[in-house]
Amino acid sequence: MEINKRPVFGTREWAKHNLNFMDGCQHDCKYCYAKASAIQNGKRTAENWTDPEIRQHIIEKQIGKNKREGTTMFPTQHDLHPDNVIEAIMVLDNLICKGKNDVLIVSKPHVPVIWEICKHFKNFQDKILFRFTIGSADDLTLRFWEPNAPGFEERLVSLMIAYMMGYNTSVSCEPMLDDNIQAVVDEVSPYITDAIWLGKANFLLDRLKKNNQFDEETKIVAMKLLRWQNDDNNIIKLYEQYKDNPLIKWKESIKKIVGLEIPTEDGLDM
C-alpha cells in the first residue's frame, strides 16, 4: 500500500467535512456541479431538480450533533432558501449548538434566510463563517447563469447584514461569471472579515451538457467566458492586479496557472 499526495481542490480547499439536507435546489444554476452529479448518478433528473426533497433522516437522526475535527461546510449540494430555512436552522442547531462544530455556511443568499440565521445563532458567532457566492456584479449575468437565485443587491445586503451583526464574512467568486470581477471585489470588500476567493468556471461545458443546459445561446455565452478564462495571460493579469491584496485568495484553478503552491492531502493507493 502506497501513500500518495493528491492536490486539494473543490470544497476540500475550504472544509474537511460537508453536510446537506436536501436533494435538488430551487436556484437551478446552469453550471451546477451538484445537479450534474445527481443526474449522472440517477438520483435526480434535469426536470425534477428544481422540486427539491428534504432528507428527513438528516434532521430526525440529528446528524452533525457530535463534535467533528475541522470545519463543516454547509451546504454543498443545494442552497439555503426561504422554503427550507426552518430545516436549515434545525441542522445548524445540531452542528453548532449541540456539536459545537465550526461551520462554513455557503450560499447565494436570500436576505430573509440570512437574517433568521444571524438572529438565531447570535450567541455562537465564533462558530460561523459565512461565504456568499457572487460571481458577477451584473444582474443580467447572474440571472442568465443562476436564474432563480437572488440578484446582486440582495446578496450584497445579505453580506452587510451578517457583517454588521458581528459574524465573520467572506465571498466566493467561483465561478467568475464575467471579465469584470473587480466590480464585485470593490463592492464587497468593506464587509469582508475573512477573504474573497477567485476561481475559474471548472468543467463548464461538461456540466452544461449533463444539466440539459446546452442550448445555442448558452453555448455561445459559455464559449465567450471560457475564451477569457482559458487565456493564461488574462489570469496572470488578474493575479498581478490582486496579488498584494490581503483579502484575495486563489482557488486551485488559478493557483496552477500563476505558479502558486497547491496544498496536498494524503491519498491511499491499494
SSE layout:
Blueprint: E1 2-7, E2 17-18, E3 22-23, H1 33-40, E4 53-54, H2 56-60, E5 72-74, H3 85-98, E6 103-107, H4 111-120, E7 128-133, H5 139-145, H6 152-164, E8 168-173, H7 181-188, E9 196-198, H8 204-210, H9 216-229, H10 232-242, E10 248-250, H11 252-258, E11 264-269
Parallel strand pairs: 2-5, 5-6, 6-7, 7-8, 8-9, 9-10
Antiparallel strand pairs: 1-11, 3-4
Helix pairs in contact: 4-6
Mean pLDDT: 94
N- to C-terminal distance: 5 Å
Q: How many β-strand stretches?
A: 11
- The rough form would be described as globular
Please give a structural write-up.
There is one protein chain. With 270 residues, the chain is of the alpha/beta class. It is 39% helix and 16% strand. α3 links the parallel β5 and β6 (103-107). α4 (111-120) runs parallel beside α6. It is globular, with a radius of gyration of 18 Å. The model has no long low-confidence stretch (mean pLDDT 94).
Quick overview of this protein structure:
The chain is α/β, with parallel strands linked by helices and 270 residues long. Helices cover 39% and strands 16% of the residues. The termini are close together.
Structural features:
single chain; 270 residues; alpha/beta; TIM Barrel; 7-stranded parallel beta sheet; two-stranded antiparallel ribbon; 11 helices; 11 strands; globular
